[in-house]
């Protein structure tokens, strides 16, 4: 593959990945506001408590084979077919197990109503299994435009379903049915856009060959999902559903912003790194450029959202979520580092280091769980502060292992990301100081957003930041 061809594919992938995430998060913003006004913290708390079980089961069903296929130089029909049937078998098995363990989940959270909610919501595991192989095909071939169409259409349709049910008084069932609709429709659209079709010839040989790599990714994915939901797991046990709902609302808004960037990058980073795996210097140049691009956007986006979190939450979904806004301000700090860590972990995966990926994620999981169990008597805010600090420091842990594989030094990392963090922090501090006297919330929100954007852009222009020039040139071309 030529340099120009790879560059074009990467650029197109970033464009469509960005378009996909802008639309998805934009719809999430719009319908999240509506749902936040229609539903209560209790409703969000109910679905948040069972989310981790659904995510773990989906990870078991997918089993890391999407990334495993992404690492194959020339995957064949039999590779996809083997993965397809394996996913179907595991997905159905996971649902059956969770169906019968639903009473134990409800007992852990002291909430009997969770039994029926679990048994209905977990049907999405089977729906997800139907589309994994098709998703792997689109991912491996960098058909990001087709993936974007699937995700955007499913997001719009499921959001309409969720809002309609919430308006009719369905409560937490609106959130559960919305999630099921999204996964089911997305799987259906993946079949429409993917030309690959399964056959009845069952051969699990490819699955066995890929399993040594994929099983580590599977275990790592499970740990990641525990890590991101560790607060929901523990809060549901030791606090009320309302408090769980407040935290979950804050986490959802934070994730909408950082995933806008992380989701865009995730669709291209691993395939790009894999395509240049034999060119060490070129791979390092691409890694550093992606790190600068990520830092250029992540820090102003997340620090800026933290700046306006309180005004945004109160105006968008009401004062009943005020405590959620305070938690959101803290989460936005660590949220800025999550896309950066994601680029580093994708490099590890592209190097075939799924074992390293697993052990580092396991260490993060143990650190988070031990810390949260120690701190929960001191309240949710203390737990969130510790959560934020751990996630920031873990960026350095990921870098340590990437540096051993690529020669990406700590000094180079700091040069790539710290200037953007410092500038973004300075811009937000200046904006906050200059707007303190404004008391009208709508005006305060608008002025802070406009002022922060203009200040950041002006500073980048004055410093002649190359990433800004390249982004502007690309947008003008499009």
Overall structural class, as computed from helix and strand content, comes to mainly alpha
Helix content, binned percent: over 70%
Overall pLDDT, averaged?
Answer: 83
Query: Helical segment tally?
Result: 20
Order of helices and strands: HHHHHHHHHHHHHHHHHHHH
Q: What can be said about the biggest beta sheet?
A: none
Give a written overview of the molecule.
The chain has 478 residues and is an all-alpha fold. Helix content is 85%, strand content 0%. The chain has 20 helices and no strands. It has helices at residues 3-38, 41-62, 65-70, 77-108, 114-121, 124-129, 132-140, 144-167, 172-193, 205-238, 241-266, 269-275, 280-317, 322-335, 338-350, 354-375, 380-406, 410-434, 441-462, 466-477. The mean pLDDT is 83.
Question: Could you write a compact summary of the structure shown?
Answer:
The chain has helices at residues 3-38, 41-62, 65-70, 77-108, 114-121, 124-129, 132-140, 144-167, 172-193, 205-238, 241-266, 269-275, 280-317, 322-335, 338-350, 354-375, 380-406, 410-434, 441-462, 466-477.
Structural key phrases:
85% helix; 20 helices; mainly alpha; 478 residues; 0% strand
Layout of SSEs?
Elements lengths: L2 H36 L2 H22 L2 H6 L6 H32 L5 H8 L2 H6 L2 H9 L3 H24 L4 H22 L11 H34 L2 H26 L2 H7 L4 H38 L4 H14 L2 H13 L3 H22 L4 H27 L3 H25 L6 H22 L3 H12 L1
Helix pairs in contact: 1-8, 1-11, 2-4, 2-5, 2-9, 2-10, 2-11, 4-5, 4-7, 4-10, 7-9, 8-9, 10-11, 10-16, 11-13, 11-14, 11-15, 12-15, 13-14, 13-15, 13-18, 13-19, 14-17, 15-17, 16-17, 18-19
